[in-house]
Amino acid sequence: MTRRQSRLASLLSGVLVAVSMPPWGFWPGAFAGAALLFSLRTDRWQDQWVLGMLFGISWFGPTTAWMYFLTAPGYVAAVLFFAVLHAFAAAVPTRSRFGRVGAHSLVEMARLVMPFGGIPLATLGIGQAGGPLLPIARLGGVPLLTLTVFGFGAMIAELVATRRHPTGLRRTSMWMSATLVVLFTTALVAPSGTDLAPVSIAAVQGGGQQGTSALDVPSIDVTNAHLIASQLIQAGEVDMVLWPENAIDVNRQRFANSSVAGLVRAEASRLGVPFVVGVTEDAEFVYDVETGNFVNAQYVVMPDGDVVDRYVKVIKVPFGEYIPFRSLLESLGAPTGLIPKDAISGTGPAVVDVDGVGTFGVVISWEVFFGSRGRDAVTSGGEIIINPTNGASYTWTIVQSQQVASSKLRAVETGRWVIQVAPTGFSATVDPSGNVLERSDISEQIVLYSAPMRRSGTTVYTRIGDAPFAIAALLLVIIPMMLTRRSLSPDHRSQSKPSSPS
């Protein structure tokens, strides 16, 4: 294959991975893309670097295109950053396909935690949320799904390479079959939690136009839309009402003392049930520290008017809720004024207690892309996970559909029901097997009624986390390199030579 052909094939491999992601959702594309990538090999590390770069660009270019409408420079920078990571993975000095599996998997696992606390956009796991491998997430979350997809891609490449060699073909086929049997058998018998009791929840989507920001729509209009939708609920129908992220915005006062809180109290009193509502609030009125910044929180308002609990979002969106290196970027003339204030992270456990209803794990918006937040919610006592979010700023449905896929992943990983609610869509109900039982349309005003089960217990993934799979990926890189070096060492070569006759 010529250099030009290899580069075109590398671009195609990234496109195949991209189409496995929502909203396209052709999950086999990830396996085909990985197989094509691992079938490409050149002798120069510089050429391998370019192949990895092209693979990353054609993967992340389409799957993060929603960022372009928020910040075109940021979109280009993000795509290039992700692509460079895979370029270095491709250039790792190993001739083993499984060494390359380890390198690319490590890159994907690194994105779960860095930079800026992690940027897990368009991960391989998201692409498999609609496929038959989803139950494997119960064992190892996105890291194990990543290793599985890249690993099977390498095996497919090996099958193609050995198609004229019966011995190699049989050996590779046996490995693939054995791996599938072990993974699925283990996933089927692995613990997934225990049902406790059902809870009736009304998730309120106020509706409205997509592609709008807080600068375009007054916050009180958003609140009123959710109040109007909530009036569709009748007393006695539900145990709890859930509003999305940013449904309420209060300035220069505590939420509990605001007029908006009074409106929520009136609805909670009318229905006789708690309301769990998303509030953007000045940080100084949450932490009693003059900061000039804000927090993104979920509050529990009881029917008697008491505000009894609160969760403050821990993982903030870089360049969305805060500006990293703000002073430096300001000095360079960057438009930091688009985000005039930085969010302050919370420090508490990822749960809220709703008296008389249950303990709810909370992952606000961006946090649902992180398996670690779902694990924290469950280990902190969460019986159902709620994902209040706000996708109103995003044009098209790429990020919104990927968020639903992430909710499916978190449900399977934790063995919990996940209720996602957004002001303009998508809102959804996901069961612990990852089935989406109900989903709203974009922009509609609707109340989604669901009866999820409160659950207890843990899965394998909630117990062990990501570390074992990162170690496995690292070993896949290191061991082939060590074996190659050993086979090429002078001492090993001299020992392998037959002795000369005397």
What's the CATH first level of the largest domain?
Answer: Alpha Beta
Secondary structure: helix percent: 40-55%
Percent of residues in beta strands: 5-15%
In the predicted model, the low-confidence regions spanning at least 5 consecutive residues are none
The overall pLDDT average reads 92
Task: Give the secondary structure arrangement, pairings included.
Layout (H helix, E strand, L loop, with lengths): L2 H16 L9 H12 L5 H19 L8 H19 L6 H14 L13 H4 L9 H25 L4 H24 L4 E5 L2 E5 L13 H12 L9 E3 L5 E3 L8 H13 L3 E8 L1 H4 L6 E8 L5 E6 L13 H6 L19 E4 L3 E5 L8 H9 L4 E5 L9 H17 L3 E4 L6 E3 L5 E4 L6 E5 L2 E4 L3 H5 L2 H22 L1 H7 L6
Parallel strand pairs: 2-3, 3-5, 4-5, 9-10, 10-11
Antiparallel strand pairs: 1-15, 2-14, 5-6, 6-7, 8-9, 11-12, 12-13
Helix pairs in contact: 1-2, 1-3, 2-7, 3-4, 4-5, 5-7, 5-16, 7-8, 7-14, 9-10, 13-14
